[in-house]
Amino acid sequence: MELDKSLVSGSMALLVMKLLEEKDLYGYEMIELMKNRSDDTFHLKAGSLYPLLHGLEEKGYVEAYEQEAAAGKPRRYYHLTKRGHAALSEKEQAWEIYARAVRRVLRGGVCLGEA
Amino acid sequence: MELDKSLVSGSMALLVMKLLEEKDLYGYEMIELMKNRSDDTFHLKAGSLYPLLHGLEEKGYVEAYEQEAAAGKPRRYYHLTKRGHAALSEKEQAWEIYARAVRRVLRGGVCLGEA
DNA sequence: TTGACATATATAGGCTGACTATATATCATA
DNA sequence: TATGATATATAGTCAGCCTATATATGTCAA
Fold first, then answer.
1. Is the CB of B5 under 7 A from strand C?
2. For helices A82-107 and B27-37, what crossing angle results, to 10°?
3. What are the pLDDT digits (tens) for B12-43?
4. Fewer CB within 10 Å: C terminus or N terminus of chain A?
């Protein structure tokens, strides 16, 4: 079953920043890592990722620097800033709240805590 | 903390259909029910809901019928069709897959099962 | 009586986020 | 030499939810 793409909306920035929490990465690497970490669920496209990274850079959540690779084009590494860490933390909390609310609704009305 | 609206994208159709699984509802009722069921997390707006319902009707996922209320405007009730039930089931599965993948990424790399 | 508010549905227009398509450039391999 | 993997980038498009606004009825307070 193909994943409904409309479900993916909005959380890519969160997921990308989460990858950057561990270590600096370049774009192409993130695409591969995202695929692996999500157990082949998220196929983040280059055309989605690079504009997203530029947006995060504008907001001051990441900083970029060029680095030569052993072969091929030089790589543009991204580093999560202090502000980025703070934003990531908030987005993680927001995700928790959101996912919990979806679970509540999907669990249906026959449960405790019904308002 | 205000919920990041961009996270909500895409899953409203799923949640609305889930409400309709239990019983027929009219639009205004869904807005209230959604708020209660989600523990005051989802504030679905009328301007989002009604076009969404019309879309579900066009796809044959719901059927509508008018019914007079004790007072005020007649209410437009929505009923989940057989096709709607099937679509709901698929969307629920898609949500499970998506949420699991997000959890995997958020859990980070220092875990078992890393691909 | 009139103004505000809750109930109830509807549409127009805008913003954001992810997509496809395309462009560029290097290197390996067939 | 041409195909594919690596690597980054932008333009244009589409979908989803938003705000703002319109309509209509009933209740309650000033």
1. no
2. 120
3. 999 999 999 999 999 999 999 999 999 999 99
4. N
